[in-house]
Design goal:
5 helices, Deoxyribonuclease I, Chain A, six-stranded mixed beta sheet, 12 strands, DNA-binding, alpha+beta, globular, single chain
DNA sequence: ATGGTAGAGTGTCTA
């Protein structure tokens, strides 16, 4: 294989956008696609079109919210739902469904949907920081393998990642604690590999024609271990996927690696 | 401060 192409996308319901997913795979010749907010149980997924294209699928989630999945045509082995230490880890009901990992073509890919946090004074905000701390703890043992933590981090690490910082003064995504939680991964030796190639936003709220006015956030990232990062040759945000009727509120982020 | 839109499913919740 000359190169490998990995993508991550908060699809905001896989069932309502299965046609867009299949078109995305075809358009960009994606080898591994990590999805978030699939909003479906594994048994609800429409798999025929994906299987016809040669893809394997692993998913976790319930029908109403959250949910993560991995779609791969380069192997899908050692699938793990959640990680040790994660809130809810060991619960057979899988109430959260925010993390699924698998080995695909020799790479360990984790599709992550970091808790939103809701409001800085909401208990869910504390839960978000706790979740990130536990992920960091688990990720310590993955860092020496070619691993990527991809998905919707629900954090804007810099002011450039917000269309209007003043408007977010009392909001989540930009607080010092959230930014510190993100920075902690970088301090541990992980690298965010998409920004250098494409600094653009990845999410635009459905409200108020935010996409048309390019008032977005950069919150979807590929956080790579050193042996993954050194193979990255390019990355881009597929903004066209966000345009028009029936789009997710996030755009896909695509990363290329040398073989 | 509020509300705007979208998706899960019929009650509201979540983002």
């Amino acid at each position: 294989m000359a190169q490998v192409r990995i993508a991550t996308w908060n699809v905001n319901s896989l069932r309502s956008r299965i046609d867009r997913v299949e078109a995305l795979l075809d358009r960009h010749e994606i080898d591994v696609l990590a999805l978030q907010e699939t909003k479906a149980r594994e048994d609800q997924l429409p798999l025929m079109g994906l299987q016809a294209r040669g893809y394997d699928v692993a998913a976790a989630g319930v029908s109403q919210w959250n949910g993560v999945a991995l779609i791969s045509r380069v192997g899908l082995e050692d699938v793990q739902i959640g990680f040790p230490g994660m809130p809810g880890w060991g619960d057979p009901v899988e109430p959260e469904a925010r993390a699924i990992g698998a080995t695909c073509g020799g790479l360990r890919i984790w599709s992550l949907y970091v808790p939103n946090g809701r409001k800085p004074d909401d208990p869910h905000y504390v839960y978000k920081l706790d979740w990130l701390a536990r992920l960091r703890e688990a990720a310590g043992s993955w860092r020496d393998t070619p691993t990527a933590l991809v998905g919707d981090w629900n954090i804007c690490p810099t002011d450039d990642d917000v269309f209007d910082v003043a408007q977010f003064r009392s909001s989540t995504h930009v607080t010092p604690a959230e930014r510190s939680a993100f920075q902690a991964f970088l301090d541990d030796g992980w690298a965010e590999v998409t920004r250098a190639h494409d600094p653009g936003y990845t999410y635009w709220d459905y409200y108020r024609q935010r996409f048309e006015r390019d008032r977005g956030l950069k919150i979807d990232f590929v956080v790579a271990s050193p042996s993954f990062a050194e193979r990255v040759t390019g990355a881009f945000v597929d903004r066209e996927e966000r345009a028009g009727k029936g789009a997710s509120d996030h755009a896909p982020v695509i990363v290329d690696l040398s073989a």
